Amino acid sequence: MSPQLIWTSFSTILRREVRRFTRIWPQTLVPPVITMSLYFVIFGALIGSRIGDMGGFSYMEFVVPGLIMMAVITNSYANVVSSFYSAKFQRNVEELLVSPTPNWVVMAGYVLGGVARGLIVGFIVTLIALIFTSLSVQHIGVTILIVFLTSVLFSLAGFINAIFANSFDDISIIPTFVLTPLTYLGGVFYSIELLSPFWQGLSKLNPILYMVNAFRYGVLGVSDIHVGWAFAGVLVFITLLSGWALHLMKHGKRLRH
Amino acid sequence: MTAALSIKNLEKTYDNGFQALKGISFEVQPGDFFALLGPNGAGKSTTIGILCSLVRKTGGEVSIFGIDIDRDFPAAKQMLGVVPQEFNFSQFEKVYDIVCTQGGFYGMPRALAEERTEKYLRKLGLWDKRNAQARMLSGGMKRRLMIARALIHEPRLLILDEPTAGVDIELRRSMWEFLQEINAQGTTIILTTHYLEEAESLCRNIAIIDKGDIIENTSIKSLIKTLNKEVFILDSREILSATLDFGDFEGRRLDEHSLEVTVEKGQSLSDLFAHLSAQNISVTSMRNRANRLEELFVSLLAQNKMQEAANKEVKS
């Protein structure tokens, strides 16, 4: 296919993905906003006011970047896993598979659809956060880049989950048993400096810790880890997951017999 | 002339060891209206799946208008439109979006995709339903939606896998007319169907597949000519006597006003009518007991079954 045809195909997939999650906005855009608002009220305002400072900032200021990142991660993942699995379930994924659209364009279209939802939700959550606290972004480049790459990474993870899934139960297992615990233990609500050395070491095996801290560094200018590790880790994972997803699309038996 | 579709020694063995295709070969010429027939599980859908990349072949070669799918599948796919047996569109998307989006997957600029969407939705009587969610359509409308979607990039080869299954007679007739129209405009069509009168009415050439093998590949006319006998049902105005004489014909009285007569190759219907007329029986209507192609189809499958049983016996 020529670059022009590839672009048309890619933009068609992306447009359809955006149309899908905006059509069902009460299911896709409203719930994360409500959940995050509750986090802000309960953890940030009510409990946070009794916690005092963390990492040199008020607890509300500390927790906001983590909560924005949490919304981006869960929504990017959820968008792709539910959209691609639904396409498999209703068999309309065949519309793409029988077309000349290359596999990498299919993957890129779905992933960017997930990124679009992740970033829109992240933006709305940021606006709500501004009701509770003021935010002055310290490193705009780091902030934008890490939130984008993290969204890409979790959209890719959602895509792979959808390829493997055989039922709607299968698309909730990873978010429930892997993603949520890792996010809660990924430094969203606390600095790992509060932990003993053993738990600090263990926490450093959690990839979400790096992304949350890199984003916090971008917004507040503080981080528990070196930001370079976060970018390196995210890029390595994106490379590995992209390769795996393309391998599954080309050789796997879950999309083609 | 380059064949619209060329299949050589095509094989498919699934992971569980089931051999769905045992090295089939056939060609479809450009402009043809071709029937691919076979009982359930014969290998028709597997063949179609391979052509549109949903099934990976385990052997053999496939070319679409001279383009080998192993060399340039995307280019071959541009030539191909497929209407599958099962509904495979998002039930929650609008009819218009389903068709227009498919154009985008084939790299069509938005304006052209929109123009073609309107053209085919109008032709298939779905324009009034363009803003309806697909799940709100009737079964027949859903079938037409899949045809519109398959035509959006105006493929040179259109494959329809049982397109009229579950469609009422009136709609089936209008779909036949539409398919004949696009065939007359140059689109090569391959049709699988269980309605053999449909294949006989529409198609010029035929391949019959059974248990992964092609057991017949010829023109419909040549195939019909191989019929050795035809069975007719005749209705008479007069009450038929129980001791009716059929002369040289094999026949039987079905009820007071109808009879069944077998006409062998070489026998003439005029002789039959003359014989009945001599007994003061006037025939008011006449029809085949079963579709001619259906008779042949059943007999070919039976022959294939007997052949297989004989082969097994020799082996054991």
TrEMBL record, chain A:
Main subcellular location of this protein, as a coarse class: membrane
Species, as recorded: Microbulbifer harenosus
Please provide the record's keywords in A-Z order: Cell membrane, Membrane, Transmembrane, Transmembrane helix, Transport
Highest taxon of source = Bacteria
* Protein name per UniProt: Transport permease protein
Does the record's keyword annotation contain Secreted?
no
Into which family does the record put it? Belongs to the ABC-2 integral membrane protein family.
Show where the ABC transmembrane type-2 domain sits. 23-252
Q: Where in the cell is it found?
A: Cell inner membrane; Membrane
TrEMBL record, chain B:
Tell me the InterPro entries matching this sequence.
Answer: AAA+_ATPase (IPR003593), ABC_transporter-like_ATP-bd (IPR003439), ABC_transporter-like_CS (IPR017871), ABC_transporter_ATP-binding (IPR050763), P-loop_NTPase (IPR027417)
Occurrences of domain ABC transporter (ranges): 5-236
The answer to whether keyword Transport applies is: yes
Protein's recorded name: ABC transporter ATP-binding protein
Instruction: Quote the PROSITE patterns the UniProt record gives.
Output: ABC_TRANSPORTER_1 (PS00211), ABC_TRANSPORTER_2 (PS50893)
What the entry lists under Gene3D superfamilies is as follows: P-loop containing nucleotide triphosphate hydrolases (3.40.50.300)
Molecular function GO labels: ATP binding
Keyword set, alphabetical order: ATP-binding, Nucleotide-binding, Transport
Q: Which domain of life is it from?
A: Bacteria
